[in-house]
Design a protein that fits this description.
Elements (H helix, E strand, L loop, with lengths): L6 H16 L8 H18 L3 H10 L11 H14 L4 H13 L13 H12 L3 H14 L17 H4 L6 H7 L11 H25 L4
Helix pairs in contact: 1-3, 2-3, 2-6, 3-5, 3-6, 4-5, 5-6, 6-10, 7-9, 7-10
């Protein structure tokens, strides 16, 4: 596609592109995750006054260059940039989308704050999908895919981590709640996401109480 930007066509092609990239994923980063993040991003963007097209496009593409899922993240970003430009997405807009998807990851909490309203929206939408009932389901799916244990009382949660340490795999599913998930409520960028995060965060706290009670045979 060349010439004038056809936003509807770009979104439709982005859906097809991402479906192909994430086909067969069983780590919680599948197409349904993308679809949930897209819906949340659009809802938050409407509340916060962010650019809907940039938010939707970044939400669709946000895992296509994630280093958890691809062997060559830099190469994947270059591919995405070429894909966007080939569809007449203006270069500044394409670079904005790339900036969002390359800097929104948690990485142990070491990434700088998102620069633009659209980046804040998409990051919040992705983080919301790591909370609540869906977040609990995804952390166990991811841990199983990476062959990590559910829980080991001898392995303590890490307080602070470099991106390399965060990706090292020296953790458990339950520890991931403390190393990332329970921190996300206070890291939301937008008022809309902070409001949505409250209930999901509380649900995870109740889950952990029940988990420990069952683990210790108290219930």
């Amino acid at each position: 596609m060349t010439g004038e930007l056809n936003r509807a066509a770009v979104i439709a092609e982005a859906e097809e592109y991402v479906r192909g990239k994430l086909a067969g994923d069983f780590s919680g980063h599948d197409w349904q995750h993308i679809e949930r993040v897209r819906r949340s991003a659009l809802a938050i963007a409407q509340e916060e006054g962010a650019d809907l097209f940039v938010c939707e496009l970044a939400a669709l593409l946000h895992d296509a260059a994630d280093e958890k899922l691809v062997d060559d993240a830099e190469g994947a970003l270059k591919e995405i940039r070429g894909w966007l430009l080939a569809r007449a997405v203006p270069e500044p807009m394409a670079d904005h989308v790339l900036e969002i998807i390359s800097t929104m990851s948690f990485k142990g909490g070491s990434n700088p704050p998102m620069r633009t309203p659209e980046g804040k929206v998409v990051q919040d939408a992705d983080r919301l999908d790591a909370l609540g009932a869906i977040g609990i389901s995804r952390v166990f799916a991811y841990s199983g895919a990476k062959r990590r244990p559910i829980h080991d009382p001898a392995v303590k949660p890490r307080e602070s981590m470099t991106p390399e340490e965060y990706r090292s795999g020296n953790d458990t599913a339950i520890n991931h709640f403390y190393e990332k998930l329970l921190k996300l409520k206070d890291l939301m960028n937008t008022e809309t996401a902070r409001r949505l995060a409250e209930g999901r965060h509380a649900f995870m706290e109740r889950f952990l109480e029940q988990f420990y009670a069952e683990w210790e045979g108290r219930r």
